[in-house]
Amino acid sequence: MVPTVISQLITVIYNMADTFFIGQIGDPNQVAAVSLGMPMFIFLTGLANLFGIGGASLISRSLGKGNPKRARTAASFSIWTSVIFSFLYGILLYAVQPMLLPAVGANEGTYRYCSQYLFWTVTVGAVPTVLNQELAHLVRSEGFSRQASFGMILGGVMNMILDPIFIFPLGLEVAGAAIATMLSNWIATFYFILLIEKRKGETVLSLNPRHYRPAARVGREILLVGLPSCLMNLMGVASNLTLNRLIVSYSNRAVAGIGVAKKIDMLSFAIATGMSQGVLPLIGYNYSAGNYPRMMKAIRTTFLYSMTVAILGTLFLFTCAGPIVQAFINDPETVRYRQLFQRIICITGPCISVTMIVITVFQSVGQTAQPALLSLLRKGGLDIPFMFLMNHLAGVSGIVWATPMADFCAMAAALGLFLPYWRKHWR
Fold first, then answer.
1. Does pTM surpass 0.85?
2. Assuming Cys at both sites, which of 35, 84, 88, 345 could form a disulfide with 265, CB separation 3.0 to 4.6 Å?
């Protein structure tokens, strides 16, 4: 779990680095532009999870059953199908930008910056963004968690190094941050390519296109298992678009404030995701091998660690909201919004941990319906209706309260699905 959590935190730093360094320019419009463009960028993580988590689950279960041929087919299908989809998405987004950006809230102050950011991070950078995250999942599925995490850390460190260079000395501002992100993802992707080539003959992962077989059963299982994680990202995109669209009616500074708040809140989500994804291969191996006592012990331990870290993280973010805010941008109105928003959103940390572990357990054993339902509830299914309702009742702060309300309901649903399944199958 530890290397996976570290790699997830580095992924958050990827996104936070852009906002932090752009914030040093002191222009709320540029910070807001990154926030408006972020949902389209996050969609790439959805694609990476669709093929990465779905493929990793099938690979670990196939290896647990002693079937490396099926694991190799799953790996090849995941890699090359994701490359095709991410490339097409980058081209499509570029074509529809003139219609899409105004629809998501870009105005005369943010349109140009948002367009520049998306061109480099998505149109040019879609394939490496998806591939490096996906390959981390697939490498981890064979038990090489440290190597997978190193690749993610490498990309994050390079992003933090390149961001200030492109933004300040080269004077590229938002475009510079986007170029730095794109180059960092390419560097991380090349690391994974070299790792797989070095382990050729010892791994079921292959980058040779000749090994690509569009196997219907394998593809169906990968997509169904990976779909809940993808749905969570897609619905997260819809949720963030709705959030931005509602908040932009108040001011660009409010959008900048919620953008920074959401970035910080990603720390809680990253830790919960890292702990759950880190234990996925262990659960999958033991489930397929029929070692249920060891599998259940892993699940219980994960719950204990995750809840402890989530509670401590929530207390830290709530009590230290002021200093964290001012580190990003010192515009007084943005700071005021950001401080309020962070304290509201951060209370969902423990709820996220419970929901993510339950989703991962179901994915590890090949279940599809329960994770899909919980993913839809957590993002999109509940928080979007709550946003409209709370906007009407309480204004801009009410919109932000929709997030903890939805996360609490999703946690209750997760426990309602998991506990009966646990007692029936493994108690």
1. no
2. 345
